[in-house]
Protein 1
Amino acid sequence: MRDAYVIGAGGSQYGAFPTESYRSMFRTAFESTTASVDNGIDAGDIDEAFIGMISIGGRQLGLSGPAVTEHVGLHGVPTTRLENACAASGYAVRQAVQAVRSGMADVVLAGGVEMMTDLSSDTTRYWFGVSGETEWERMAGTTFSGVYAQIASAHMAEYGTEREQLSKIAVKSHANGALNPDAHLGFECSLEQAEGAGVVADPLTLYHCCPTSDGAAAVLVASEDVVEQYTDTPVRIAGVGAASDGVGLFQRDSYTSLPATKQAAETAYEMAGVGPEDVDFAEVHDCFSIAEILAYEDLGFCEPGEGGQLIEDGVTTLEGDLPVNTSGGLKSKGHPIGATGAGQVYEAFKQLRGDAGDRQVEGAQVGLTHNVGGSGGAAVVHVLEGPEVDA
Amino acid sequence: MSRTITAVGAYVPQARLPAEDVSEAWGRFDGAGIRSTAVPGADEDTLTMAGEAARRALEASSIEAADLEAVTFATTTPPLEEAELAVRLGAFLGTGDSTRHETAGASTNAGVAALADALEGDSGPHLVVASDAPRGEPDSDQAHAAGAGAAAFVLESSGGARCLSRADAGLDYPGTRFREAGSSTVDSLGITPYEREAFTETIGRAVDGLGESFDPSSADAVAVQAPNGKLPYRASGVLGVDTDVMTDHAVVHDLGDLGAASVPLSLASALAAGEKTVLGVGYGSGSVSTILALEAGESDEAGAVSGEVDFESDETISYAESLRLRGEITGGEPAGGGAYVSVPSWQRSTPQRYRLEAGECPSCGALNFLPQGACRRCHELVEYEPVQLERQGTIETVSVISQGGAPPEFAELQARAGDYATAIVAFDGPGEDDEHASAPLLIVDAEPDSVSVGDRVEATVRRIYTQEGVTRYGIKARPLE
């Protein structure tokens, strides 16, 4: 099968933008993506598009894909809207890889967009947790903060994980986000602030939860047959893995691990011919701080139950052996749902090409992105290799 | 032939509002003779209270819900003014498709009258449940006295307590306690001497109807309708009984006005305590009175009545908390959309929501809750064997949801009752093995922060939320002692 490469990636700032629409946000991301292609690219070169969007608030529930691709001038390009909750655009990238590898397309746009901050707080909360097991989890009075709080509670009971370790994740993510000009909450926070913030769903405080954001991100994936036309320094998508699981946490055997992440990672590592020890940095799905601890364990960065110790030891800080969420992650960079997965690949693209500025991981060769839908009903993992490795 | 009472059950909400807290707020307390009142939880109504009392009575009996010939639900405050809610009560319990379901109401006499009617019937088992939670305008006598509670009686063809005599009377007294069409609060003109006259005259006429068949002074315990803690004693003269036989099982002093459940709860208390001859004196404004004389057998013979009646509670609440719990000062559900659960889809899940019906996978033996789709363990697409989960289970994980973390459908509940704990509960299967199945459930009747992984809980049916005027009922979990 043909190899697939990222030849360009971009995104809007994440944050609250009352003067923007989902279309204008997507346009910003699209223009930043095409501008990142070293030798330039014409709209006419793009064969196919996959767009992730939940349509929070009920805006453009149908045909939201063509609504944004036609807006940016990708006229007539077959566009598919992808919905896998918060993993929507991670799956869009995977679809782009499939299209390229199958030979049906040479250049594919994968992206996502979400507008979340122009709604009343009540309406916003109606749209929280719509990807849980609606008829049971929701009717037990939970949205995702409640479900992830239950995961945290179970992890604490089983492994002795401490709330302060969750707070240290938040402190680390904000330290990284403060170096990212595109971050929604690009400021540092102290351990005391994270510990002392109001409780949202015990044991999670406000600082253990990601914000709701407006934002868009996109990635251009090209086949090995055409990649050289566009850049001499492409990022190879070495491994792709994805998996599903029961939508409701209560229907799973374990509340302290996401089996879909494990399965997706296994597939991606095998395809790339690498293991977790080869990964230089990772962008993981930290919608809640406990989710990052689960990711450490499920992606094989440490043994089950040792995720809290990994942050305690500073391994995943920017200066550590395995920096995680250099962008600030969902916590600090923000979480515009449909855009998040593509945004993670955008960060990896910058890191692997040495363009990450103040938050650059020195000598980054192998990066991993990890995008989760719901409380683990969907997961997708990409292993990406920088230009030097492939050359 | 006639029926006899073989088992009783009772349920009273946990929260108690002391009279002095009302005095503090209003500068007076107008519930004469009442020390405290029982206040329903934010997710309780007369139907959920009836469900709990009925389940307790059935568990004390040898009758299965499916064997009941009839279910009568007596209340002056049904959650809906039209719709046969006794069927929903039956569904909570698992009655059969051909069970007769009926609701009795109209006045506070309804509970005693329904029990008397069912005792006269002569075919299969009959469940009578009286449940009430009257309300008044906050500054009224009725509101100060308002309590809540339910009592249930299992009636069979023999054994337990039999009816010795019954008498009824009706005298037209307009302007005594009434509730106008479309109103949720009871009212009265407050012409005290007139109301006392209606009470004693109507009951007196019913006493006359007993004739030689029963002498009230021979009763070991007498239960009289109690809209407050003083009025019932005014009937001692026409009944010819000492007030001390009226106090032993009086519930009004600690629980308040229980409406149609007032006399039934006292009767259940007396029968469960082993009193031999028990007189129930019902009264409803309008006015009507039904008097019922019961005789239980010796406790070591077939005449014992099974069941326990215990409504002790040390959870007291402030007056402001009572206003929140009752929804007097909360804003209702916010507008919005999203995560909509249609009524038909909710209705299809009621065997799980009311009775914890699960399924056993014929391929691998795993218990599945919900019993639909592919098995959660072996992932084969199978047809499940129906399995009834135990009602008791263990908390596997729990979170306490604060204001920001609740879905808006639960905003009204949270405004009334505060932060809540929500958990995943593993319910034991029926077999000897360790098979269990889990459900996500709200936790009730507990300090949220006190709920921990490993705690034992039991399922109880409560209101989940109301949308489009339709209340979704379903199980929640309550800590076991």
Note: The domain at 4-325 of chain B is CATH 3.40.47.10 (Peroxisomal Thiolase; Chain A, domain 1).
Protein 2
Amino acid sequence: MEADDLALVERARAGERDAFRALVVRFQRKVYAVALGIVKDPDLAWDVAQETFVRVHRGLGDFKGDSAFSTWLFRIATHLSIDAVRRERSARKEDVDEVRESDLEDGGEGILATPLGTDPRQNALRRELGEKIEEALATLPEKHRTILVLRELEGLSYEELAERLGIHKGTVMSRLFHARKKMQAALREYAGIRGDADRDGEDET
Amino acid sequence: MTKKDCVRFAPMIGAREGELSEVEARALAAHLAMCRRCQELAARFARTDGLVAEALLARANARDFAPFVDQVMDRIGTGAPQGARSGRGLLGWVGRHWKGTLSVTAPALAALAVFMYVHFGGPGQVASLEISSQGVSTVLQTSDGPVVLLPPEEHPS
């Protein structure tokens, strides 16, 4: 049976390298995925993920266990990712958080109108979709990327997002709304591709 | 129902169970029941829900992670995590900050040692006591000859 996170943390804290190694292997891909979602660049995400584990190891003595190990781990990953983005980006206009009437205008209709299946053609579409999602995500401002990644990948609640990002719950809700709207808009071109593909499929049947 | 209602309720679309107050959840449900535009918005959000996670995890799973853990372990080195060796509390803190602790306590300990030597040393051990400063060192003139008290930074570790 796999040791639980806390048991591995205790052993790692006592200096057992194998225990810390097991923690790295257990979380490395998800930490990388979070970093990739926020920093966009795969190599930078790799570095951020590594730095996350180095910082975690350095801080094991101070980990109180008040929250889950994974919560602590991903908090560090999030902050390092945001720091990395902010170091790299040039000054640019930040989007506002509040929701206006113009934000309710339609965008991205028709995308993903049908769920993807499991046949080869749909698998190919799924791969293509993954690439398009990543491209679309990369077009979002950092704060919208971050909140969407944390919401979807880590599954954080509004309260947890507010705590993690140091913003009010209302800001969380409106920022998530903007992030989703921007994703829809960024996928609009792909929606056309999907629409053609779907129509072709219908013609064949 | 006005556009202002939509502006109010749109950010609530996509909330999970328990994330809205009962009042908010009821008001949103009532609005959605009447507003076709927000119904469509909710449907569009629902269609893309979870796709970001799926795409990022798929990308992570496609990458070769074989060297990752070794690179992390190399960066960590062979040392135990901070706090693991010296424990917690005052002793742990002193262990981690021994240089600072030594520099602060050494003069007091030296003074205490002199006091003990003068007052409790046997007869004939101290004929006279003269303290003078020579640079950063303090010299005790005792009956057995001069004794140089080293400053903290010169104490052997």
Note: Chain B has a mean pLDDT of 74.
